[in-house]
Amino acid sequence: VLEQQVVGGEQAQNKDLKEKHKHRKKYADERRLQLVAALQESSEDSSEQALLNVYDSIQEEVRAKSKALEKLQEKLRAAQTKIKDLQLEFGLEKMDYLSTIRRQEGDLLLCQQLLDQVQSLVRCDCKCSNLERIRHESIWDEESGCWKIPEPVIQRTHLP
Question: Which residues form a coiled coil (predicted)?
Answer without folding.
Answer: 55-89
